[in-house]
Specification:
Number of helices of chain A: 0
Number of strands of chain A: 12
Strand content of chain B: over 45%
Helix content of chain B: under 10%
Oligomer: heterodimer
Number of strands of chain B: 13
Distance between the termini of chain A: 41 Å
Structural class of chain A: mainly beta
Structural class of chain B: mainly beta
Helix content of chain A: under 10%
Radius of gyration of chain B: 14 Å
Distance between the termini of chain B: 36 Å
Shape of chain B: globular
Number of helices of chain B: 0
Order of helices and strands of chain B: EEEEEEEEEEEEE
Largest interface: A-B, 23 and 25 residues
Largest sheet of chain B: 7 strands, mixed
Strand content of chain A: over 45%
Radius of gyration of chain A: 14 Å
Order of helices and strands of chain A: EEEEEEEEEEEE
Largest sheet of chain A: 6 strands, mixed
Chain lengths: ~110, ~120
Amino acid sequence: AQTVTQSQPEMSVQEAETVTLSCTYDTSESDYYLFWYKQPPSRQMILVIRQEAYKQQNATENRFSVNFQKAAKSFSLKISDSQLGDAAMYFCAYRSLGNTPLVFGKGTRLSVIA
Amino acid sequence: DTGVSQDPRHKITKRGQNVTFRCDPISEHNRLYWYRQTLGQGPEFLTYFQNEAQLEKSRLLSDRFSAERPKGSFSTLEIQRTEQGDSAMYLCASSLLDGQGTYEQYFGPGTRLTVT
């Protein structure tokens, strides 16, 4: 079975600064997907960024980018130019091929300090 | 596209009562997932459907839990004889699976269950 580990329960960042959230995972599969989801307080979960394991190039979405290290089974999220609206719980998630259910980590609560 | 909706948003019930939650997925999505999220944890998979067929159930889904998606559209999750340990946020997500690839799971706002 796959597992996802987020070792940072809480992180904080100054507005406009950069922060990196860590995620490691365990799997015996060679092809899979990795995701970062954002869950703002009392609001629904939304997808931030996705990475296909077969792609060597790291995914980027505006201020959000990942550092995907397949051999190390590491998948960190970098948020640049942090904004107050980035404050939320961030979940790293794994999915096998074929739209199977997601496996989530425990999450990292990010605070943004003005 | 109005997104995934869930009803009710909040439910308080007494231990031993039965509760039922509803999820309406995005209209063209053929896959529907139920997850449970307890305080301070990430969501955990419960069960999922492709159209009306229930494809998989987690070991977390005890005999007191049952889920249906009778016409391949909305889904219901029923918990019988609720226990305090059932208190959690119940999340529904939907996605589209077709031959061209995989699509993202879109989440609803969740139903927060409190068992007293």
